[in-house]
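Handout, section 3.2

Students often ask what a structure token actually looks like in practice. Rather than define it abstractly, here is a full record for Neuronal cell adhesion molecule. The first block is the sequence as you would receive it.
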Amino acid sequence: MMGLEMRSLVAALLVLILGHFTSALEVPLDLPQPPTITQQSPKDHIVDPRENIVIYCEAKGKPHPSFSWTKDGTHFDVNEDPSVTMRPNSGTLEVDITRARPENFEGVFQCTARNKYGAAVSNKIVVRQSKSPLWSKDKIKPIVVKEGVSLVLPCQPPAGLPPPIIFWMDNNFQKLPQSKRVSQSLNGDLYFSNVRREDSRSDYICYARFTHTQTIQQKQPITVKVLTMDEINDTMADYYNFTEMVLNEAPVDERKPTFLIPSGHSSSKMVLKGHVLEMECIAEGLPTPEVSWTKVSGDLPGSRTSFLHFNKTLQIVNVSESDAGDYRCSAKNQHGAAHHIISVVVKATPYWISGPPKNLVLAPGENGVLTCRANGIPKPSILWSINGDLIENSPKDISRKVEDDSIIFTQVRVESSAVYQCNISNPYGYLLSNAFVNVLSEPPRVLTPANKVYQVIENRPAFLECSSFGSPIPKIDWFKDRKSGILDGDDYILHDNGTLEIQVAQAQHKGKYTCVANNYLGISENHVYLDIKEPTRILKQPVDKVVQRGGSVLFECIVKHDKDLVTTVTWLKDGEELLDDERFIVEFESLSITDISESDAGSYTCVVNNTLDHDSATAELSVVELTPPPAVVHGRPDPPTDLELTDHKKRSVQLTWIPGEEHNSPIQEFVIQYEDSLHRRGHWHDLARVPGTRTTAHLKLSPYVHYTFRVLARNAVGLSEPSSPSRMYKTDPAAPDQNPKGVHGSGTEHNNLVITWEPLTGLHSNGPGLRYKVSWRHKRPGTDWTTVTVANNSKFTVSGTPTFSPYEIKVQAVNDLGEGPEPAVVIGYSGEDLPTAAPANVQAVVLNSTLVELRWDPVPSHLIRGHIQGYKINYWRKHHKHNSDQMEQRILTFSGNQSRGMLPGLHPFSHYSFEVRVFNKKGDGPASKTQQFKTPEGEPGPPASLLVTNPSLDSLTLEWNPPREHNGHITGYTLRYQPVNNSNELGPEEELALAANETSVTLQNLKYSPRYKFYLNARTSAGAGPAIFEEAVMPDKGEGEEEWQKELVNGSQNIKLKGLKGGHSYRVRVVAKGHHEQPLHSEELFVTVPAVSSRQVDIATQGWFIGLMCAIALLILILLIICFIQRNKGGKYPVKEKEDAHTDPEFQPMKDDDCTFVEYSDNEDHKPLKGSRTPSNGTVKREDSDDSLVDYGEGGDGQFNEDGSFIGQYSGKSSSRDNDEGPESAGAPSPLNAMNSLNSFV
């Protein structure tokens, strides 16, 4: 047991020590070497029985190898069968099916390439002929079903090789509509969760497309008739003998879901790693159930998961071991739910862990290791062979030792040259790889062409190749010009394959470089030259233009480029090449467009290209309409007629037409459109535009298109209707003219590379069988391209890549007629992973109390393991003297590869901690060691509060709380205050300095002012902070100082003051007075008595009072009239004298402005009141009386007092006269009594 452990330890040490000898070398073909298989057919080789069978086997070696084949494990003699030939200098077999039956060549073939140094074997190639058998022609009975039941229409296609693609169509070759109610299963059957009347039709047709033979087979149509209960009885007899009945007597009720497939409550499924997992659940029910999916033991892999066929199919691509587990599908409707568990088991065919074993080229006496490391589920077994025979059956070799997945070679000899086969297998597949050991003694030789000139744009990287061969492996050194010293370090990087990299090539790097390869057998050198070129730049870019329709425009594109580089300028419109239109005039540095139309609007891009560099710039063209003259009625033109195709060629055709009526607006252009009935029937696309003066167009066409043309005319009003289509013109297929655009490579996982591209449209496919040849290799000189062919997809995933490594990628379009042009190489990167290192030398430089500059050393790019996105600063305030609460962490992000950054908005006088970490698109790296810094003192915040208390006539007290943010040690406060008069004018400002421990101050002897404004701020050593503002209103002192009212207390400690008026302010003080001492006054107390709402109201404004006054006035008027009549009857004086002495009161004028009597006086109380009358409702209206007491009651001209004193005086005089008249007024109420009663009430 100990011996076994020692042998394993020695093997491991040898692998580590000898690892540098294992790099693969490409042996020049003029040197002896064992065979290497360079091309072979796929393991599963399906051939078309209509074509000759070709089984590839190509190999190289020195001497050139011979080839032999086995079929089904026995020797296959090519010479015995006249229908079989082997290509010259090749092992590729060709079978002429015109002379033999294809099924005779089905079997397992294996090729062996052999020379005197060894033998290499191919994979076991299983040859099978593709099959596309026909469906049975038996007529299918019509199916009659009751509305609402479930239904399955079986497809059951014939077994083909490979299996066919199934789809359902109708008689018109239109796909049958599918939904969450009706869908196709993975086996091709058509499922109805419940049927409806509209499902009745006679052309349910299942089609099978066999991709290998490009044939489509059709099943007999199926007729389905959906009936209601009323219709069933009427049609039962008719369909009894000729239909398949899916009926019962009861009506179909709504029901909860049940699964049609899969059956039962659970099932299982096995899938291989890297393949596509598809699980389906189709349920029936009424109403139609909704299907959903969950993973019982975890989450679904979001980026690799798709829900197909209306959620009935769960698809997971690129399956990994983590996808194993239980999956639940659920079908629900309003009546219930059904569930099914699918247990998924993931297996894996063998796959390489670090790639297949690499060829070894060793000098005699050297050591080396062949490693064949792979994995699988279950774990695969490893079988080593040498020259096609099991290694245990070969002669012993003391220089060779097999250790599980490695063969260790020590002190090899020339006779040790051989080809080793590593076969790794498990029940699900195998990997077979050849790797030779070639023992040579060979002096160095440089394989890179001599005197090669490398041209590089200034400030770009340069790579100078020095591919070499020798055994032992030669050492590579580089020299510049006169071999002043070995180039390594600083500006230069020497790669393991001999390539010299100049990271930033500049003018001083121009010159001659010498590559020297040497081993103990000799030395070889080669010279190359580096030429630095100026970059290509657009000095004057095109600018946006707005042009009226029918006008012209000029775009300029002034370019600067290296004079030795052939540079071209190309113009694009909306990313596409310009149409072949004579209105577009392209010069080297300008583009002009004449007779502009609306279709010319868009973006125009100037693209400058040469062999080393490029640049581009874009401008927008906007086209505005001209206002047509109103006098002429314009209309759209009529469509062109009589389309004719002439001058037929493979890639072009001539189209002519006759224009339609212009309708008073000249035709500006014709738009030629085409329909491709082969790829997109019913879709019309613009092909060309020609001026309105032309009636013919030379059309450039694409291969493998079925063209139909139509023409539209455009004038200032708009486009005409399309013309009638031309006859169809079919172009022959050809190899692709272009490759996919938008090739991009990036990783979705840390160990993969996802290559994507924009697929070619059917128009650009140029022929049948469009597919893509995807190639990639590690961006490292000397690495080989790996190529796969992808069809019907625009994505390919490379697994097992190192994390964030650059790859060269190219995608080439291929169809059945050949390959497209050589594709351009783009650079992509495999998947990112989290950074593994933190920034070093992190430090903080405090700039002021709120700003700190942080500095750090950037993390090396190889430790970032991804595209750097920036750095994140996590920082937090730990504590400070006046606030011990710890703040939450904050994050500040600096984009890009920064090495410093500003941290603003900090709190002064605080302790902070911070960490720095780098992050990429995958996430954050580890944090740096936590660092601390302290901010200096700053200006304090405003005091927390400021209150005015104890205001009196000439003093008040201010109270405040210290600032919430001290920002340092408080050294004191500054109080500023100033009076404010009634006009809001500010008086002189006073300032008072206060100690730090004070929180209140009393201000005495304030000058008289209605208001005061106060400003208080705190100070630290850094300066004064912002102030807090407060305003105080001083007590009202009245018109003048009143005398103090006194109340004797006589020793009591409280007193009740009476007679105070509501709404007034009083000063109250207590005075202690002895016999001989001066009085001692207490502090004055400022008291405001609240205003009490009085229940008494102004009587003069009350309606009842006004009515009463009017009644009294009326009574007085009546009394005065009676008195006047009585005097006239008494004859005391003549009427004439009376009239002369006194003008008739009816004609006494009144003052209009205040409704008062002009000549009324106390001496003329006997005169009646002019115009006084009272309405029947007891109110006084202004339109009835100009001297209404309402006016008097409102105090017009100040003649009435609020207590009605004027009315009382007036009434008193009138009452005295009434008393003199004796019985004349005895029956009327006394006005005097009424007024006295009123006065007493008031």
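Discussion prompt for tutorial groups: Residues 980 and 986 are 5 Å apart (CA to CA). How would you have guessed this from the sequence alone?
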